[in-house]
Amino acid sequence: xxxxxxxxxxxxxxxxxxxxxxxxxxxxxxxxxxxxxxxxxxxxxxxxxxxxxxxxxxxxxxxxxxxxxxxxxxxxxxxxxxxxxxxxxxxxxxxxxxxxxxxxxxxxxxxxxxxxxxxxxx
Length: 122
Prior knowledge:
Strands 2, 4, 5, 6, 9, 10 and 11 form a 7-stranded mixed β-sheet that branches. A 4-stranded antiparallel β-sheet has the order 1-3-8-7, with no helix packed on it. The protein has strands at 3-7, 10-13, 18-25, 33-39, 46-52, 58-60, 68-73, 78-83, 92-99, 111-112, 116-121. It has no helices and 11 strands. It is mainly beta. 0% of the residues lie in helices and 51% in strands.
């Protein structure tokens, strides 16, 4: 059992930056990957980025490479998503999720945060 609590959504203009955080509790994260996904209205939930807790290996969707950075703070059991150069097409509800392996398909993740809205105006 893993509980994930997200914070950091908001309304920003194109080109702005935003930081999301995902605080985890309930079970050791040593064997987990923490991923970020997003879902726009009427769209499927898409992979954004993921990081392995023990090794810190990172993976990014092509659409966010060079703009978004995922990181972790072991002492706080928290994963961060730094989003720079935001675009209107980044507008979505963002979710963090935990998996026992690294996947880019949201269906493979076991635990989910509550989701936070990111809106980017042009």
